[in-house]
Amino acid sequence: MKYSAVIIMGTYKDLVGKKVVITGGASGIGLSTAKRFIDEGAKVVIIDWNEEELNKVLSSIPELKGGIHADVSNPEQIKTAFKKIDEVLGSIDILISNAGISFRNPFLEIDYEQWSKVLRVNLDGMFLCAKETILRMQKQSSGVVLLTASNNGMEGRPFYTDYNSSKAGVILLAKTLALEFAPWLRVNAICPGYVLTPMQKAEYTPEKLEILNSKIPLKRHAKPEEVAGLFAFLASSEAAYITGQAIAIDGGETAGPYTPMDE
Length: 263
Prior knowledge:
The chain is of the alpha/beta class. It has one domain (7-248): NAD(P)-binding Rossmann-like Domain (Rossmann fold, 3-Layer(aba) Sandwich). It is built from eight helices and seven strands. It has helices at 28-39, 51-60, 75-89, 112-137, 161-180, 198-203, 206-214, 224-235; strands at 19-23, 43-48, 66-69, 94-97, 143-148, 185-192, 246-249. Strands 3-2-1-4-5-6-7 form a seven-stranded parallel sheet, sandwiched between helices. α2 (51-60) links the parallel β2 and β3 (66-69). α1 (28-39) packs across α8 (224-235), α3 runs parallel beside α4 (112-137) and α4 runs parallel beside α5.
């Protein structure tokens, strides 16, 4: 069943016609975000390492302006990808750097190969894509860069040392770029908590999901579409005075210790 954009449903009229690049755009949060920006009337190109999923998305969403197979942690592949984006879009108004990976292991079981892989994808990939994008945005002296971090980058969480470290780095990358390129560029980090993506459903049993939900103040995972909605808001002129921020969308997880009270 093909996806069909309904541009009249768009909320932010200033996003109509904007040129948007989304990494990790073939699944999960990235795919929902691509659909949302298409609904807003934007011109969207996605980048993803999974060629099979990328081809499925391209065949099911003809409204996409393009899809590029590339590994965000590979400098040469990213340079090539952005040259293709130049050909398709001509310029870039919004980057949503979303691609990331995670593994669940105790600290002493994390080998250097895993550590390096997570840091390369989650942090180096953000650096490489942001740099290529900002080089292009400089020519027009305008743009928005949004980096997918995590609430895991805002506080310690066991068994995700490499992931947590990478996402903390993403938050400081966003804050630093926001200061360095103000006032013409806005940069923010979006910090989701648990999101009910296909990957999450595959990793956890329904019983485990129920346990996780019990520890979240709002008692549920986020929907990918809700995270996509935050991206759309932050990319729009409605968020024109928001930059250099790490914005959690986590159902209250990072608000403080949660102890359910009896009714």
